[in-house]
Amino acid sequence: MPSDSRPAPRFESAIENADDVAASCAPGGERRISLFAAHDFSATLWDWDGVLVDSRRNFYGAYERVLREEGIVTNPREIFLREGEPTPVLLRAILNRHHIGVDDEKIRQLVIRRREYDFGMGERKLFPAVPRLLKRLRDSGRRNGLVTGSSRNSLYKILQPEQARWFDVIVTADDVTRGKPDPEPFLCATQALGMDPKACIAIENAPFGVQSARAAGCAVIAICSTLSKKDLSDANFVVHDHSELEVLLFGDMQRGDELPVRSGDWQ
Q1: CATH level 2 (architecture), domain 56-120
Q2: How far apart are CA 224 and CA 85, in angstroms?
Q3: What span, in angstroms and rounded, lies between the C-alpha atoms of 224 and 125?
Q4: What is the pLDDT, as a whole number, of residue 114?
Q5: Between 20 and 30 A from 50 (CA), which of 1, 105, 156, 210?
Q6: Cα–Cα dist 209/220, whole Å
Q7: Which residues are 147's β-sheet partners?
Q8: Do 215 and 235 contact (CB within 8 A), yes or no?
Q9: From CA 225, how far away is CA 129, in angstroms rounded?
Q10: Residues 60, 117: Cα–Cα separation, whole Å
């Protein structure tokens, strides 16, 4: 097939022509122009839960149990729509939605209980494609950041020291005063990297994370590991799984043993 000689589209953080670029980069399309060919992003900022680590069963299961013990019947979508918020904020929001008032001490106890349930549900592992993706980004001269609503203590129960070295900056709930959807977490990361947010692209899986990154001035790719494309429509691009993410970023996918992981696989 002859190559297309048209210049690759350029766009700012708002990505005004995102639909055109997305069509060009579509994993199933005839043309595969990498996102990095369309715009030379210098850094990729990764969310943790549901993006780098497959915490879906633990994440929802722990919230479901602790809320059920307070008399609340919830569902995965209700919880995952608020993913990215610090745990105390998420719990209080759900409790208030169900007209249950609690004081700060009660929230503190629920946070501890939820954490115990989470880690009692078994080991959480990185998605299989993650190490290769991070290495490809580093080998291409780009920097990696980790931006999570988890506490530093919770993060480092899973993230090993050698894995932490994959990232040039790590921002947790302990490093900010206002969590997602506020832009502070991503602004903190871009400032630590010494980069303009427009030079960074965020990888998220929840609306609050998408809103946070967009408000900071970053472009956003959403991955449907926990929610539908409709729920993530505020992102500049939406991919179904890590395989499509790799094709979008690089225009191809290196061979690996992993299978696509999508939102319905874990339920």
Answers
A1: Orthogonal Bundle (1.10)
A2: 18
A3: 18
A4: 95
A5: 105
A6: 9
A7: 171
A8: no
A9: 13
A10: 10
- Location of each CATH 3.40.50.1000 domain in the chain: 18-54+124-250
H, E, C per residue of 163-196: HHCCCCEEECHHHCCCCCCCCHHHHHHHHHHCCC
Tokens representing residue 221 in the block: 């790719």
List every span in the chain annotated with CATH 1.10.150.
56-120
Q: Which two tokens stand for residue 89?
A: 């904020």
Spatial distance between the Cα atoms of 114 and 121, rounded to a whole number of angstroms: 11
- Residue 44 to residue 114: CA distance in whole angstroms: 30
- Position 19 pLDDT exceeds 70: no
Residue 147 has pLDDT above 90, yes or no: yes
**Cis bond before residue 181 (omega within 30° of 0):** yes
pLDDT at residue 32 in the model: 56
Predicted local confidence at residue 99, as pLDDT: 93
What's the pLDDT tens digit per position in 25-80?
Answer: 444 444 456 888 888 899 999 999 999 999 999 999 999 999 999 999 999 999 99
Superfamily name with CATH number, domain 18-54+124-250: HAD superfamily/HAD-like (3.40.50.1000)
CA distances from 231 to 144, 206, 213, 225, 235 (A): 26, 8, 16, 12, 10
